[in-house]
What does this fold into?
Amino acid sequence: MGDEPFQNQDNAISMFLVSDQVVGSFLSKNGMELSVVGLYVTIVLAIGRFVRLIFDKISQRVIYEEMPRTTDLMEFCDGIYIARLEGDLKREQYLYDMLIKLYRSPELLLKLTGTRPGKED
It folds into this structure.
């Protein structure tokens, strides 16, 4: 061995990581200690999960959130509400079934709500 303590004898690349211990007042009371790297990884993972949660299944929601004309759908909802107020359960069930059928069919939704301005109908 040479005079330098970190000298590599095999001429290979070596990496040494020195990390100070970071102890917050809350963490030290509970007996937990996190290094700087551990704290950094924890924060990055938390932010990553939050961003992932925001954009989760956005491709499935966009068809419902970007409808240009929703007045006909609102009229279905108002009809269901009025039928419930009047106690006409058969009409309420019929309108509800029609609304569900509309939401399950992208083609019917497109015909009913149209497309964005500037695009062909």
Observations:
- Strands lie at 21-22, 34-35.
- The chain is about 60% helix and 5% strand.
- The first strand starts at residue 21 and ends at 22.
- The longest helix spans residues 36-54.
